[in-house]
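Good morning C.,

I know you're traveling, so I'll keep this short. The sequence:
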Amino acid sequence: MKKSVWKYFAESFKKLKEQPVLIIPFLIMFVLILIVAAVIMLKVNSLGLTEEIIAGVTDAASLSQIMPSIVSLGITALIAGVLSLIISAYFLSGATGMALDIASKKKASLKSMCSYGKKFMLRFFGISVIYFVINAIAGAVIYLISGILISDPVAGQLVDLALSLGVFLLMTFFALSYSYLIIQNKGVFASIGKSLFIVKNNYLSFLLIWIMFNLLSALVSLIPYAGVLISSLIIIPAQIIALVLFALDHNK
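The tokens, ready to paste straight into the viewer:
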């Protein structure tokens, strides 16, 4: 049975309260990604690449002096990025599987998280890479248009905002891919295709759900010190439950 937008929103938090075990994979993922970020920061400090040094590069000779450090940092960042995607793929696939159990009125557990994670991690990673490429291309296009082709700073910011909103609305069509990957146990492109089809046919209702969670997450993240943690451990798990509930109700 299809529910109202508010029903999905409220029910997701209710179900999370009933089975808070879903928070655990997000807690572990949060800590591991923090460690990866800390390694990057330590690498930057060890290389001594300060803003003053980078700003002082005016010719090929000065660039050649710091090029080894830039290459080393680039390799480290690439490894850290891939590692973060792998960590996210494992724990998000496990968490989405747990959310499916919760939505199906089953008892979620860390054992089931590990089972789902092992089974779906590679396909989750594939979807994440596709999303990363899409967002990277979109970001480059936005920067090219608003930062280079448009000289007026105010106009550039307005165009930047409009294009960013367009990318957000576009990515909404892909938002159910992870849910259908778990629900239907199909491939990457089949799951993306299913998401595109369902969102297209239920765009307004799904968009409202998507906006509600993302807006709430953004606002909570503004809370000093604890905001990002609250968003990561409460709002995002509830959002995944809501997406799974919506995907199940519209699965045809």
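Safe travels,
E.
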